[in-house]
Every structure is written in C-alpha cells, then in structure tokens.
Design goal:
The complex is a heterodimer of chains A (about 180) and B (about 300).
Chain A lengths: L1 H15 E14 L4 E14 L4 E7 L4 E2 L2 H11 L7 E8 L11 E13 L2 E14 L2 E11 L18 E12 L2
Antiparallel strand pairs in A: 1-2, 1-9, 2-3, 2-4, 3-5, 5-6, 6-7, 7-8, 8-9
Chain B lengths: L1 H13 L5 H13 L4 E3 L22 E12 L13 E10 L4 E8 L4 E11 L2 E3 L6 E11 L16 E12 L4 E12 L10 E12 L4 E10 L11 E10 L2 E8 L6 H6 L11 E11 L3 H7 L1
Antiparallel strand pairs in B: 1-6, 2-3, 2-14, 3-4, 4-5, 5-7, 7-8, 8-9, 9-10, 10-11, 11-12, 12-13, 13-14
Classes of the chains: A mainly beta (about 180), B mainly beta (about 300).
C-alpha cells in the first residue's frame, strides 16, 4: 500500500512541476551618461502549478555585457561573484486561482517572495504575465530593485553612470519536468 | 499494522509542507547535473604586469590603447628635475582576435623601436567540470630598431636591426587578492655589442600582485638573467608599482630601473642599479574600446 501511495504522489508531482534551465534574466541601468544592461540566458527555475510556488537560481558570472570590461567589473567589483556565485529567488504566485494552467491563455499574476542578490535577501513583489500555450508555460515579469538594498557599493567616481534603481526583466519558458 | 499506518500518516502530513525550500533543493539538484566550468578571471588587472606581459588578454573584439611612459632616473637630481625633463614613451595598440589570441603593435621612442607581438592562451585556470590549476600563455614578439646605425661606416645589414623574444607565462590566481606568475624568457639578438656576447639570452621572470582594495593592487616584477646568457654590464630588471582601475581606464604607476618597454630592452639592456637610485618613475595608461559586441557573436551561434 505504501509503495502504491508513494508512486501516486510522485506521478502527481511530476505533472505539476515545470522547469527551465534556459530562462532569461536581464537588468537595465539607465542614467543620462550611460545605459548598461546585462543578460543571463542560463537561468534555472521551477514552477509548481498546483501550489504556485516559484524558485529561481542563476550564476552571476553568466550575465553577459556589451563590453568585456563591464562584465569584469560587474563580477569583480560589484557582485563579488567568486565569493557569492549565485543569486536566487523563492516565491509564490499570490493569485493562483486566476491562472488556469489547463487552458491556453494569458493570465496576469503577482509574485511575492525573497530575492537574494549579493548574499542579501529582500522581499519583493513582482507583477507578471503567465501564458499557457500547447503544454508550455511562459512567465514574464518586470520589476525594480534598489542596488543599495543588496549591499552593493557604487563608488562616487562612477555613481553618475550606474542607476540607483535598476529594472529586472524575467522571461522563462517552462516545460513539464520529466 | 500500526507501524505502517504511522508511516502513511506521517507521509500524508508531510506532503502539504512541500515548500519552496524543497522546490529550491530540487532545482539545485537539477542544476548540479549541468556541466559547468568556472574560468579564473582577472588574475591581473590588465595585460601588462608592469614592464612585461601578464597572463591577461584583451577580450575578443576589444582594442586597447596603451601609453607607456618612463621618466628619467630619479637620482639625476634637481638639474634634470628628478627625471621629469627626460622621458621615453611607448605607444601601443593591442587587439583581441579571439578570447585566447591577441596581437599588438608598438612604437617606442627609445632606439626608435617598432614592435609587434602575439599572445596566446594555451591553458586557462579553471574549476568545475574541468579542473586546471594554472594558466599558461605563450608570447612572441619581434622588435625592429629604426634609429641610425651606431657605426655607419661598417657594413650594416637590415637583419642587425631585428630582435626576437619568446616567453611562456605560467600564472595562478591563488585567491581574490593574490596572483603569481613565472616567465621563462628567451631573447635573440641578431647583433650584439661585443664579440663574446651571446646572441641567445635567457632569463626567468617572476611577478605577482596583491590586491589592496577592489580597484587598487600592488604589483612586483623581477627578471633574473641566467649567468652566461646575459650582457656583461646589464642589471636585472626590477619593477614595483600600483594598478589603479577607474572604470574604462587602468593606470599603472611604478618605479623601475629599466628604461625601455620592449623585452630586449628591459630584460637584457637594463643598466640602472635599482638600489643605487637609478630608478625611473613610470606609468602605463590603458584605455579599452569595444569594437565588436561580444553578445552578438554568442546569440548568432
């Protein structure tokens, strides 16, 4: 009986667990002097459609920039990515009832959770859209964070070139976890 | 039977607590399956340690404009304004063809030299799927003197103006703040000062850096010339300095007994005695320009 029950649990889990390893997270820093953006196309994320739980993890070193030197400074001076290699997010869709994962369509959602960058965790609320189409789930979100909140110091010398508030854009296409 | 019932009961109770932490653990287990190699980056701040090459290359599609300056000897006193009245300069352009291969051109005021070099990364220090304890690069340069012949009455050959230098750079970034590099070097001089002087000169360089803050490091560089493979009156090259990084620039400020900035000059033809005050104050300025957006190439594949 126990074996049968466990099997049942595993199969039901597999059906509502969606995963991606090629999600995209990008950030945009805009100032009158300089616009900087970094893009990471190797973001891993899991979405549990029955509970609305959502987790992300990414390697900071996988952010790529328009200029090699920006990338080096991002890792060496700001994110200290050798010491703190990962950024993570653990959260939950707050209006899960508004989303019908069984039916194709686009649903407006809000996600609440803990964002950990540079080893510092902050609560964030992010509006987003979940699109269900042909068995795939696409999650898109855009929200803003303050660099200061995550213990990242910007020296005065370059303060004019790096925005205090950066926009984060998330774009993940999930497939059922096998 | 009671035992089984308990197990089932516990399982059922445990199920709803399938929280984000478990989901995070599942995600981490999934990402662990992926192959990932982490290359050591920024072993040094720029492509030059002080006088000589560091293990760093400019990235693919990046052009680096270098201005290298050495003032006169500090111990020339007030008459020469402690060396400020004299200066030797090298202007250089370095370019990254790939992330492993860079090339460069330079023009020095000293002996009116022209030089060209390539630097190729053979091994890259890494951890992860591929573990490599060191980085290894090869550098070769060719140097052409274009100043007037020392003895114009002699039968002079064009090849006498040429010099070749070959170096291996073996480096390891031990920690965020400490990197060390060894540089076995061979320089070939077609024309040497005396009949008994060797044409192939050997030296072993050692250099390193200690990071003082995120943007400032202290560097040292020393070339030991092997006995029997050096010019009689030459001194070993010593250099100590700071790298200061400010956004797109790296400033290198240093003290060295070497006057020139090409291998044959600073390794084989240093005449100043560092410890008797034959010291040049010098600086290198590096400014990089991105010619090609590296992401365009990556998305194109």
């Amino acid at each position: 009986m126990l074996v049968g029950f466990t099997t049942l649990v595993i199969t039901s889990q597999a059906q509502n667990i969606y995963i991606t390893k090629t999600g995209q997270v990008a950030f945009y820093s805009k100032t009158p002097l300089e616009n900087i953006d970094g893009v990471n196309n190797e973001v891993s994320s899991i979405l549990n459609t029955s509970t609305g739980e959502l987790v992300f993890t990414l390697l900071v070193k996988s952010f790529h920039f328009e200029r090699a030197l920006l990338e080096e400074h991002f890792n060496e001076n700001y994110m200290e990515s050798s010491k703190i290699p990962k950024s993570t997010f653990k959260g939950k869709i707050t209006n899960l009832t508004a989303v019908n994962f069984a039916k194709d369509g686009a649903y407006s959602t809000t996600v609440d959770g803990d964002l950990t960058i540079h080893g510092v965790t902050q609560k964030v609320t992010a509006p987003g859209t979940i699109t269900v189409k042909a068995g795939k789930i696409t999650a898109v979100s855009s929200f803003k964070i303050k660099i200061k909140d995550y213990g990242i110091k910007i020296p005065t010398l370059v303060a004019d070139k790096i925005a205090e508030v950066v926009e984060i854009k998330v774009n993940c296409v999930y497939e059922p976890k096998k | 039977m009671n035992k089984y019932l308990l197990v089932v009961l516990v399982s059922v109770l445990a199920l709803p607590v399938f929280a984000q932490d478990d989901l995070m653990k599942m995600l981490e287990d999934e990402t662990k399956k992926e192959k990932h190699t982490d290359l050591a980056t920024a072993t040094f701040k720029t492509t030059r340690l002080i006088n000589g090459h560091s293990i760093e290359n400019v990235a693919a599609g990046v052009l680096d404009f270098k201005i290298q300056h050495r003032l006169g000897f500090v111990n020339t006193g007030i008459k020469e304004f402690f060396g400020l009245d004299q200066a030797t300069i090298r202007l250089g352009l370095d370019y990254g063809i790939t992330d492993r291969l860079m090339i460069g051109l330079g023009r020095s005021s000293f002996q009116k030299q022209l030089d060209a070099f390539y630097k190729f990364k053979i091994l890259r220090q890494s951890t992860g799927t591929r573990n490599m304890p060191i980085s290894l690069s090869a550098v070769s340069s060719i140097i052409l003197r274009t100043d007037p012949w020392a003895d114009a009455t002699r039968n002079n050959y064009f090849t006498s103006r040429l010099y070749y230098a070959h170096q291996l750079l073996i480096a390891r970034k031990f920690s965020e703040s400490f990197s060390l590099q060894l540089m076995p070097t061979m320089v070939h001089h077609n024309l040497v000062p005396g009949a008994n002087d060797p044409n192939d000169l050997y030296a072993i360089g050692v250099g390193g850096r200690i990071k003082l803050s995120k943007r400032v490091s202290f560097n040292g560089e020393y070339y030991y010339q092997l006995p029997g493979y050096r010019f009689a009156n030459s001194k070993n090259s010593v250099a100590l300095g700071f790298d200061i990084e400010t956004g797109g620039h790296v400033f290198q400020l240093h003290l060295t007994n070497s006057t020139g900035m090409t291998e044959k000059t600073y390794i084989n033809e240093t005449t100043g005695d560092f410890f008797k005050g034959d010291i040049h104050f010098g600086f290198n300025i590096s400014r990089v320009f991105t010619i090609k957006d590296p992401r365009k190439k990556k998305t194109g594949k």
